[in-house]
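Budget justification aside, the reviewers requested a transparent look at the raw inputs and outputs of the sequence design task funded under Objective 1. We therefore reproduce one unedited record. The lines immediately below are the structure tokens for a 218-residue chain.
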């Protein structure tokens, strides 16, 4: 019989796969003064079109998929904030070297997962809901729906973004809600169990092992 943690992880992996599809529609911002909602809407069609037209991706080239994810998604993510929030209070106690290792392994985990979900993006269309925010807001939530052929109901996808400090830096994603589940919150629960059982080094080892297992699976 599967334990609750295994069931939770399997459900979360399905949620994260959907999240991967969502984040694939976001590419580096072209205009620093562009609204967060406008950025996501404007660039979604560009990135989706590049996915559809890439012969290597269609042929199942995993290296190409991961390179695309790394190039198109990660520049738009405040990755340090995302990692720190996912690790939770233990992040403050981690050494600089441990923080570096956590970010490295967490990035590998996300990039490979997003690459694995890339094929789901071929037939998807994104619509952005009206955003409630003021021009001076530094953090916003952009609510979207994603729908594809054969899907009766759209997928709810909400982004949390922050305005990067300084001129010309644009918006950065630091969390994503898929079907009512915020990714950082779910990872925090998983990571907390690892830290409580084996400490920060134990969490790093767990991420390394998970990434190695994923690499073997292809």
């Amino acid at each position: 019989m599967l334990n609750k943690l295994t069931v939770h992880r399997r459900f979360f992996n399905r949620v994260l796969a959907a999240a991967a599809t969502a984040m694939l529609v976001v590419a580096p911002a072209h205009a620093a003064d562009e609204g967060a909602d406008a950025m996501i809407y404007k660039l979604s069609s560009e990135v989706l079109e590049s996915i559809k037209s890439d012969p290597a991706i269609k042929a199942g080239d995993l290296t190409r998929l991961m390179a695309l994810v790394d190039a198109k998604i990660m520049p738009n993510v405040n990755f340090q904030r995302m990692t720190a929030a996912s690790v939770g209070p233990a992040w403050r106690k981690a050494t600089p070297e441990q923080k570096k290792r956590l970010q490295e392994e967490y990035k590998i985990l996300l990039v490979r997962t997003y690459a694995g979900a890339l094929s789901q993006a071929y037939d998807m269309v994104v619509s952005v809901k009206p955003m409630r925010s003021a021009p001076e807001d530094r953090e916003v939530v952009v609510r979207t729906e994603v729908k594809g052929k054969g899907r009766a109901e759209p997928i709810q996808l909400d982004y949390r973004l922050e305005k990067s400090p300084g001129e010309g830096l644009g918006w950065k994603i630091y969390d994503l809600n898929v079907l009512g589940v915020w990714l950082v919150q779910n990872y925090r629960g998983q990571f907390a169990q690892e830290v409580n059982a084996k400490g920060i080094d134990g969490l790093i080892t767990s991420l390394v092992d998970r990434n190695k297992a994923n690499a073997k699976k292809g």
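The first strand starts at residue 124 and ends at 128. The chain has one domain: 4-217. Computational costs for records of this kind are itemized in the attached budget.
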